[in-house]
Amino acid sequence: MADHPFQPETLAIHAGQVPDSATGARALPIYQTSSFVFDSAEHAASLFNLQTFGNVYSRLSNPTVAALEERVAALEGGRAGLASSSGMAAEAMALMTILQQGDHVVAAGALYGGSVTMLAVNLKRFGIETSFVKATDPDAFAAAMRPNTRAVFAESLGNPSLMVLDIAAVADVAHAHGVPLIVDNTVPSPFLCNPLRLGADIVVHSATKYLGGHGTTLAGVMVERGGFAWDNGKFPGMTEPSPGYHGVKFHETFGDFAYCMRARMEVLRVYGSTLSPFSAWQILQGVESLHVRMERHCTNTRKVAQYLKDDPRVGWVNYPGLPDHPQYDLVHKQMRVVDGAPGASGLLAFGVKGGLEAGVRFIEAAQFMSHLANIGDTRTLIIHPASTTHRQLDARQQLDAGVLPDMIRMSVGIEHIDDILWDIDQALNARAG
Amino acid sequence: MNTISELTSILRRHRTIAVVGLSAEWHRPSFFASKYMQSHGYTVVPVNPRYAGSEILGQKVYADLAEIPFPVDMVDVFRRTEDALPIARQAAAIGARCLWQQIGVVNQEADQLVREAGMDSVMDRCVKIEHARLFGGLNWVGVNTGVISAKRRA
Prior knowledge:
The complex is a heterodimer.
Chain A: H1 8-14, H2 41-48, H3 63-76, E1 80-84, H4 87-96, E2 104-108, H5 113-125, E3 129-133, H6 138-144, E4 149-155, H7 167-176, E5 181-184, H8 189-192, E6 202-206, E7 220-224, H9 236-239, H10 250-254, H11 258-271, H12 277-287, H13 290-309, E8 314-318, H14 328-334, E9 337-338, E10 341-342, E11 347-352, H15 355-365, E12 370-371, E13 381-383, H16 395-400, E14 407-411, H17 417-429
Parallel strand pairs in A: 2-3, 2-4, 4-5, 5-6, 12-13
Antiparallel strand pairs in A: 1-7, 6-7, 8-11, 9-10, 11-14, 13-14
Helix pairs in contact in A: 1-3, 3-12, 6-7, 15-17
Chain B: H1 4-13, E1 16-20, H2 29-39, E2 43-47, E3 55-56, E4 59-60, E5 74-77, H3 84-93, E6 98-101, H4 108-116, E7 120-122, H5 127-135
Parallel strand pairs in B: 1-2, 1-5, 5-6, 6-7
Antiparallel strand pairs in B: 3-4
Helix pairs in contact in B: 1-5, 2-5, 3-4
C-alpha cells in the first residue's frame, strides 16, 4: 500500500510539524534561541562536518523556521525548502547559490521592480549579466541563451504586469541548455500553482504576501524540486569539493536536496539573511488558512475585475482570470480551478479614464482600500506602480515590466465583496475631482 | 517504492548493518552514512577488501560478507548497480534480513532475488537520509519528509 497522498489543505496545516518531542506541544513552539548545546565534542564535530543533522546556531537552522521550510516545500511538491528574511533575500540566495562572476542569466522583463534592479544593477556589479526577454514568449528565452547562461528566472504571474509564464515551455528551454528554471511563485501562492510540477527546478516566494497573508511579517522561502542534473558539467560548485565547507561535495553527499544544503551552508550561513523564529511562526499562522483565503481572494477579484470591465468610468482592466485575457487558456492549464473558473489570484491592474491624474484622485478617495506598497494582505490594497514600486526603472524598463503610466494595481482583499465594490464606486465618482 | 511504514519498520528491526564498499575517507558518503547510523545506536560492520584487517569507525573491516563471523540484519550496498547482484546472493546466503541499495544503486534483479528469499528490499535510497527523515533530523534542514502525524517522533 502506497503512502496516502495528502491534499494541500491538509499540508497547509500539518506538513513540517509533528507534536514537539520534548513537551508534546501540539502547536508549533517558537524556539527563540541563538544556539543549541552539543551532546559532546564528538557530536559537535559531526555537526560541523555535516555528518549528522542537527541545530548549531540559528543563523543556519532553527526548528521553528524549519517547520516553515518543510511546509512550503510540501505545498509546492518540492524536495526541500530554505527560508530567509524576505522574498528578495530568497531570490538573492536562489541565484547566488549557483552563479559566479562571468555567468549569464536569462530573465523575464516583466518582473517585480526590485527583482529587475537586483539583476540589472546589483548582480551586474559582481560580473553577472542578465538578458531581459518578453515573459510571454518562450522563443525569446531560447534566443537569449548563451554558452555561459547558468539560470533562467521568471515570475509565474508577473507583478504587476500579470503576464503569465508558460512554465513547461520555458522549463524545456532551460533544460535544453542544461540550466535550471527559477520561478518566483509569489502571486499565485502554492495553493493556486505549483511550478515544480510543471517542470521548474526552483521556486522562490515572498512569504510576506499570500503565505503569511496578513501584512504583518516579512519572510522569504525558496524550494527545490530535486532531481536537477547538477553534475552536467556546468555547476562545478555543486559537484567539486567545497573550499568553503572543508571539501564536502554537495551533490554527491545530499543528492536531491543538495541545492538547498549548499544554499544553507554557503550562502545563508555566510551572508546571514536569516529569518527569525518569531517571524517564521507568524507566517505559519497565516499558511494554515492559505487555502481558505486564496479561494476568497480569487472569487472577490473575479467580481471586481468584471465590475471594472463593465464600468464606463474605467478605461481598461487586466486580470488573467477574465475570459478575454490573452493568456486565459494558459491560466486555465496552470492554475487550480476555484469555484468553477481558473483561480487567477488576487492581483489586477486597471486604468481610470482621465489618465494618471484621475487615477491619483481615485487612490486618494478610497475609504478603506489602503494605499501602500504590498500585496497579498487580507485588506484590499491599491497603488500606482509607475511612481512607487517601479520608480527606479526608466520609462523603457517600466514598459518592459508591464507598467503603464496610468496603471493602478489592486490587491483585492477578503472583505465583503459588496463593500469592496462600494469603495471602488465612490472612489471612481471622486476621480473627476 | 517503500512506504513510510515499511521503512520505519525496516529501520526499527534491523540494527546490525554490514556496509559493503565503506570508505575510510571521512568525507565520503559511505563514511558519513555509517558514522551517522553508528551514532544512532546501530552496529556498523565494514566490508571492503581494500581495507580488510584494518579498522574503520572503530570496527574490524571484512573483505567479504561471508567472512563476518556473526549474524547481520541488513546489507547496505555502496557499490555500482552492476555489482549489487552478487552482493544480494551473498546477503541471502549469510541469512541477512534486508538488502538496502543506496542512492543511485538500482539493481532490479538483486531486488527480486532478495524479495523471493523473503528479505526486505530497498533501492535508490540513503539509509542515513531515510533514518533522519522518519526518526527526526532531516526536518531540521527543511526537507519535505512526507511525515504527517499527531504523534510525537519516537
